[in-house]
């Protein structure tokens, strides 16, 4: 990231985090940290290759690094009120170390996928009878 971009982090009260596997030939996790502005543009602060599986220790290190660099660039503490990411327990565990007062939110696609998976477990003919 750039010093100018990381200095804008305190202007947002949210941090978005997501990682995915199988984007590179080593099967390393590619993790992206950033925030969105009022015009819904995403600004990445960190794009990292994680050498191990998604573990809380990796997220703790990355959260600490973000906090350190934001403080060095902007001179103020990064107050994350909303931590948005997928449903992994590792992000939630890491939040308890670095962003104690933030609320943990799930991003839109992950709950929708889960809802659709659970919906498939109910036979089609019973779905509407259960609702009404």
Quick take:
The protein is an alpha/beta fold and 132 residues long. It contains five helices and five strands; from the N terminus they run αβββαβαβαα.
What report would you give on this structure?
The protein is built from five helices and five strands; from the N terminus they run αβββαβαβαα. With 132 residues, the protein is of the alpha/beta class. It has one domain: Nucleotidyltransferase, domain 5 (2-Layer Sandwich), CATH 3.30.420. Strands 3-2-1-4-5 form a five-stranded mixed beta sheet, covered by helices on one side. Helix 2 crosses helix 3. The longest helix has 19 residues. It is globular and about 60 Å long.
Topology of this protein?
Blueprint lengths: L2 H5 L6 E7 L8 E8 L5 E9 L5 H19 L7 E4 L3 H10 L4 E4 L2 H12 L3 H8 L1
Parallel strand pairs: 1-4, 4-5
Antiparallel strand pairs: 1-2, 2-3
Helix pairs in contact: 2-3
CATH architecture: 2-Layer Sandwich
Low-confidence segments, ≥5 residues, pLDDT <50?
A: none
Overall geometry: globular
User: Structurally, how many domains make up the residues?
Assistant: 1
- State the CATH topology: Nucleotidyltransferase, domain 5
| Mean pLDDT rating | 81
The rounded Rg comes to 18 Å
Helix content: 40-55%
Number of strands: 5
Task: Give the count of helical stretches.
Answer: 5
Percent of sequence in beta strands: 15-25%
List keywords for this structure.
MULE_transposase_dom, MULE transposase domain-containing protein, alpha/beta, globular, 41% helix, 5 helices
């Amino acid at each position: 990231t750039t010093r100018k971009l990381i200095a804008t982090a305190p202007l947002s009260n949210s941090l978005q985090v997501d990682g995915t596997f199988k984007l590179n030939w080593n099967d390393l996790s590619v993790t992206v940290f950033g925030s969105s502005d009022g015009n819904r543009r995403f600004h990445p602060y960190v794009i990292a290759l994680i050498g191990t599986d998604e573990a809380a220790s990796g997220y703790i290190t990355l959260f600490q690094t973000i906090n350190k660099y934001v403080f060095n660039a902007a001179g103020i503490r990064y107050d994350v009120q909303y931590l948005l990411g997928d449903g992994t327990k590792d992000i939630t565990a890491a939040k308890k170390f670095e962003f104690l007062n933030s609320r943990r939110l799930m991003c839109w696609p992950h709950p929708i996928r889960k809802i659709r998976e659970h919906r498939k477990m109910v036979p089609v003919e019973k779905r509407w009878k259960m609702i009404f």
